[in-house]
Amino acid sequence: MSYLDQLLAAFSHFGSDPWFWLVGGATVAMIAFSKGAFGGGAASLGVPMLSFFIDPIGAAIAVAPMVSAMDMFTLRAFGPSSWSWPDLKGLLPGLFLGLLLGWWLFEMADPRIVALVIGAVSTGFAAYWFYKRARKVKAEPHPPSMPLAMLAGTGSGFTTFIAHAGGPPITMYLVRRALDKRLFVGTNTAFFTIGNLTKLIPYGFLIAKRPDAAAMALMLAPIIPFGSLAGIRMHHRLSQDAILVLTNGLLILGGLRLLYGAVRALWG
Fold first, then answer.
1. 110: phi > 0 → left, psi -120 to 50 → alpha, else beta; which?
2. Which of 111, 130, 136, 168 is most solvent-facing, going by the fewest CB within 10 Å?
3. Contact 113, 224 (CB under 8 A)
4. Predicted structure pTM score
């Protein structure tokens, strides 16, 4: 079968499944909403949820162009004036290094081990943040740190390439910085817009071999504008504390999801 024939067959297969529209649509809407409201946090849900309908590699390939499209909507609301340039100076070089490592190790790295480490660290970090909040310990802003930014950027670039789970490393770094909500979301947006666009180069070669993943992305893409714009509207209504509560809440949920999936895959 030609690529076009396989693409049309995938359209027919997915389109006739009501669960695909319900679960897949809700997943894409949630990821788009989270990007607009607080810069991300739910992208790691894409692969496990879409894996109900396609293999995990295919799900990862389908998610890549969709998150890039989401970034385009979020970027219009959070332009350069909302970016923390001192932090991006360290985060972006780390991002490119992490993406190169991810591309190089894509077929060698065990995603279960990556998920286990990221899940444990992100869950512990967010739990400690909630512990300090409950004890009313005021978060003191830390100055930009080039070494920590490089480390966070590299970790995020690597995990976003391997499993679209790059949120925890950069979230932990930016929460530590205690930026105001606009800078927090804007810096997140700049980082992942650049990262996701860069990822499209290698993922473009992958999607050229996977018409089923291309069909999935094309069918779910119309949901993106509605989720993104709803998230951006919600951002303006949320307080600084609410943004941090939701961000760290998603960090725990995402971390636990990664831990559960990794433990089940390793010892199931």
1. beta
2. 136
3. no
4. 0.77
